[in-house]
Specification:
mainly alpha, elongated
């Protein structure tokens, strides 16, 4: 739980200070590479932190006047509701960050000295 909060705070600060969206994959990758000792924890941490951040951000944008954009995007994707577009943004960020965290863990496991080599 602490890892999720720390990853979420790092993502939030970087999203507020920089205009780039791809921190959602870089930060979980680094967390998975340097901090986690299991594949599941690295996936879970990235997915929970980024998914929660983007879900809250998309909800805030939706409630503050961007509902028209979300409604038009939902119509283009045939989702039906603008709220489904908000949920889709959170899920997409969760999957992308989870896979990035898992990739970081996997690359670290590839270069570990104690891992079995074929």
């Amino acid at each position: 739980m602490t890892g999720i909060i720390v990853c979420l705070l790092v993502l939030l600060v970087l999203h507020l200070l920089t205009p780039w969206w791809w921190w959602v994959m870089v930060v979980p990758f680094l967390f998975g590479f340097f901090f986690w000792r299991s594949a599941w924890r690295s996936f879970r941490t990235g997915a929970a932190a980024a998914g929660l951040l983007w879900l809250v951000a998309a909800t805030a944008y939706h409630l503050s006047g961007s509902a028209l954009i979300a409604q038009r995007m939902a119509m283009m994707m045939r989702l039906g509701s603008s709220w489904l577009m908000v949920v889709a943004a959170g899920l997409l960020a969760a999957v992308a960050a989870g896979v990035a965290g898992l990739a970081g863990y996997s690359i670290r496991a590839l270069f570990r000295a104690d891992s079995p080599k074929p």
